[in-house]
Amino acid sequence: MAATCSVSEPLKNGLDDTSTPLLRVEIHDHSGRSYHAARTIPAGTTILEVDTPYAYTIWKPFRNEVCAECWRYDGGRRSFLTRKDDEGVSEESAEGSGGGALPSNGQDRPGVGAGLWFCDANCQGRWLGREGRETMRLLRVLEEARRQKEGDKDKDGGFRLEDLGQTELSRENVDRAWEMVAQKERSPKEVRKWRNIQLDHFETDVARYVLIALVHRHREAHGEMDWERGRQMQAGEDIIDRSSVQEDTNTIVQFGGARWKDFAALQSNELRHLNAYPELLENQIRAYQALKGRFSSSHIRASTSERRTGSTDGRGEAQLAGGDQQSHNPQPLHIGQGDIGAFRDFGSMVTIDNVRGAFRVDPGNSFGIWETPMTDESELMGFAVYPKPSFFNHHCSPNVTKIRKGRTLGFVTTRPIEAGEELCISYGHVEMMSLQERQRELREGWFFDCRCSRCVAEAETHNFKGLQK
Ligand SMILES: C[S@@+](CC[C@H](N)C(=O)[O-])C[C@H]1O[C@@H](n2cnc3c(N)ncnc32)[C@H](O)[C@@H]1O
């Protein structure tokens, strides 16, 4: 039964932009926003197709076995991956919507890459065209935070769950944990220490997910204009002031048809997720601290002004972060001339609100990046959040199936659909399970009590107490 009055304001956000000629969003009492058919739809119709996620990560064990662009995986074989990071890309050829024609400055710490492998120059070019070479640099800086050996977390200044002195992760306690971090970051000295935080693989991988989201938010905030300006500076062209068209160009900065406001307005499962896995709070806060320490605005600002006053070494480069990193990171990381526009104020994106916002929406909305074709043996290689498809609710007898081709997600009807009918996918492989098994699976894996029409009908028939209409 669809309702329109029982939802909070945040839940309503994003509704305006989500309807398409085939889909409209309705709000249900027990399951929130959900796609419905705007008219009759034949079986086999692609009702939504989204070409790229807003944020995603590939888990470290798969990083050098999966193409970073098309997500091709060949059972662990690597011979099809012929390009790494920006290797083989000339300075001029990395242009695109990301405006990525920035020089490889030769200063990046040897051995630390951005962690991106590609099938070939096409995949590499597509990635660079969308994300820009600057994003590669940011990923490289973050990779320096990846702990190479098991270390002692206690002494690195990063948050520990024990610091909270509470085992129960109530709303108040989670807020208090973040507030403790907010207090600490009022001291620039403390934030400088966070540059030395070393993250474990999981923490680094989730920090990469956040970083991609923040880069996208930054791109929206600054519009294409700065990227274009950086490209012009690099190419030695006259800078054309296009500030009058910034608003127009802003509207085209989207990733998978979505903007930050769509991403951040997705449903949050923060508390239920943290209660199931309390150590995640430590992982998330440490990831935040490492990002903050490495990308802090004040550090970038100081460095960019250095460049402007010519106090760098004359190679026209501005220091980004890591100038005084720990001893095994002796070389400072630099960004190239022209990056000023692209990076300007990137550090201001690294706020508790933004980072917590990105973590909050991941558990309820992320799609697993599975090896295809999907079998029982398929590997889970990472996860991705696509805001538009996140409005599909789950049904234990779904009428829509999800198909991944590369990083594009397509949604196809599996039977004829009546106008007004709810359109649902299946979140897991639960169709063959009993009512009790399905309920347990969805509660434990997805943190909700399934109230799809099949579960509700079966619960009534079997007098199953767990579900009420
Ligand atoms: C990916 S979101 C789907 C969109 C969501 N309804 C919203 O308003 O943003 C997944 C969440 O939707 C709700 N949901 C989806 N399918 C459901 C179902 N069959 N029964 C109850 N809740 C459901 C759950 O709260 C779940 O965590």
From TrEMBL:
<feature type="region of interest" description="Disordered">
    <location>
        <begin position="299"/>
        <end position="332"/>
    </location>
</feature>
<feature type="compositionally biased region" description="Basic and acidic residues">
    <location>
        <begin position="304"/>
        <end position="316"/>
    </location>
</feature>
<protein>
    <submittedName>
        <fullName>SET domain-containing protein</fullName>
    </submittedName>
</protein>
<dbReference type="InterPro" id="IPR001214">
    <property type="entry name" value="SET_dom"/>
</dbReference>
<dbReference type="InterPro" id="IPR050869">
    <property type="entry name" value="H3K4_H4K5_MeTrfase"/>
</dbReference>
<feature type="region of interest" description="Disordered">
    <location>
        <begin position="84"/>
        <end position="107"/>
    </location>
</feature>
<dbReference type="InterPro" id="IPR046341">
    <property type="entry name" value="SET_dom_sf"/>
</dbReference>
<feature type="domain" description="SET">
    <location>
        <begin position="23"/>
        <end position="428"/>
    </location>
</feature>
<dbReference type="Pfam" id="PF00856">
    <property type="entry name" value="SET"/>
</dbReference>
